[in-house]
Amino acid sequence: MSKPKAPYRKTEIAGRKLSPETMMMSYGYSPQLSEWSIKAPVFLTSTFAFESAEAGAAFFRVMGGRRQEGDPESAGLMYSRFNNPNIEVLEDRLTLFDHAEDAAVFSSGMGAISTTLMALAPAGSVVLHSTPLYGGTETLIRKVMPNFGIRNVDFFAAAEEAEVWTAAEEAMKLGPVTVIYTETPTNPTNDLVDLAMIRKIANRIGEKQGGKSPAVVVDNTFLGPVNQQPIDLGADILVYSLTKYVGGHSDLIAGAAMGRSDLMAKIRSLRSSIGTNLDPHTAWMLMRSLETVTLRMNAATENAKKVAEYLARHPKVEKVRYLGFLEPGSRSAKIHENQAKAAGSTFSFDVKGGQAGAFKFLNSLQVVKLAVSLGGTETLICHPGSTTHAAVDPELQERCGYTPGMVRISIGIEDPDDLIADIGQALDQV
Hints:
Its cofactor is pyridoxal 5'-phosphate. Keywords: Pyridoxal phosphate. Helix content is 38%, strand content 15%. It is an alpha/beta fold. The protein has a 7-stranded mixed beta sheet with strand order 3-9-8-7-6-4-5, with helices on both faces. Strands 10-11-14-13-12 form a 5-stranded mixed beta sheet. Strand 1 (12-13) and strand 2 (16-17) form a beta hairpin. Helix 12 packs across helix 14 (416-427).
């Protein structure tokens, strides 16, 4: 059930629909409730006092799905594993960019992904998923979830409908398909999943399964929330590493899931049970970061275009996997045009000389930071094959197009000419 629209949840004024950028400054929070403080305080409390014993009992009934006549529509503040003012305001604001009905925040991106998958894919069911995925997600789906009786079948991210349907038919032979999980663009190769096609596949599976369609879950970390809104294209649930662009300052760890309220109720319930919730202080930091997420992502996107163009001309670079370089009129270009607003600022490129050449390049950088993660204000670079995706089987790495010389770069908001100068001198060492 969606939350009622309180005065501090205004989405329009005088008939004008407010933009997410405007609503990030105030939506979900009233200064009147907190001594007229313009910014929400940090509610560093583990528990909340009840007005009465009856109110406490009602809150717990609602939280546990046992609502009785006369109980409130939603549970009041109870305990910070369940709810907290900072978390609730953050969740309200996260729904705005992606047009989600509800959102829940987690202690990490993998906390969001694992809780979502375990909530929607019970034992005996099958997850149909694209590949490549973030290395942690690949490990979760392929190696951890089978221990709980959840099987998986994959398809290549850039596959066309016939190939995906073949994988779907294989999956249905193993059990009911309850989730289609995708990541687009893919990490780290920037392959694209056609989300409209995935929605169509989900509906076809539903017809085969007596009306029980799998939930379409999309990792939107690479381009969202500013440059891509998969819910508008048929996704049911989005998952995020908020550590990346939303947090955007490389100073916190967090994740989120958002989308259909009926599915989010299952995810939120499991979060409460297993304790993958976010803490209030990190929620407060994310509220701060959301105020500038559009400015930061737009600046990084512009910088990335300049850096990618430089790399494409460099003789020691073999391939630049940048979405701005998709061949006009190609299937990938059409998918990108239909799904996204920009090319983003994270991409991979292949350094000549294999891993030795890549390592020599990485070790010679002076401004660009050699570190995992992405989406920060600073430019970060890593060698996925030996770090973020090291646990991915070598055969799967090869199948997905990894090369020994592939490095992933996440462009920040520095002066792009400084970044180019640093990259150039490092490539000279190869």
